[in-house]
Amino acid sequence: MHEWIGLIAGALSNIAFLPQLYETYHNPQAKGLALGMCLLNFISFFLWMLYGAFISSLPVFLTNVIGVILCGVLCFLKLSGRIRNKQ
């Protein structure tokens, strides 16, 4: 039962990224998105993913793998928008 709670909590945390990802994809400037926050979230998700692997916790590992992917895409979009704005 506790694993299901972890999976649901992780899924909701990742779903919370989707509106920002959608907005950043359709508005490449992403002026309202701080790059520092994006990079810190990416590092945080990555470290939680490693921790989940070390303690063999599927909910912690799986939800943070998804978080790394979503946050990585978000950081990429933010950085690519900044590069396009400078050209």
Can you name the CATH architecture?
Answer: Up-down Bundle
Span of the ends, CA to CA: 52 Å
What is the share of helical residues?
A: over 70%
Secondary structure tally, helices: 4
Structural class: mainly alpha
CATH class: Mainly Alpha
CATH topology (level 3) name: Monooxygenase
Keywords for this entry:
single chain, 87 residues, mainly alpha, Monooxygenase
Secondary structure layout:
Blueprint: H1 2-15, H2 18-26, H3 35-54, H4 58-86
Helix pairs in contact: 1-4, 2-4, 3-4
Compose a concise summary of this entry.
Helix content is 83%, strand content 0%. It is mainly α.
What does it look like?
The chain has 87 residues and is mainly alpha-helical. The protein has a single domain, classed as Monooxygenase (Up-down Bundle). Helix content is 83%, strand content 0%. It contains 4 helices and no strands. The chain has helices spanning 2-15, 18-26, 35-54, 58-86. Helix 1 (2-15) runs parallel beside helix 4, helix 2 runs parallel beside helix 4 and helix 3 (35-54) runs antiparallel to helix 4. The longest helix has 29 residues, at 58-86. The model has no long low-confidence stretch (mean pLDDT 87).
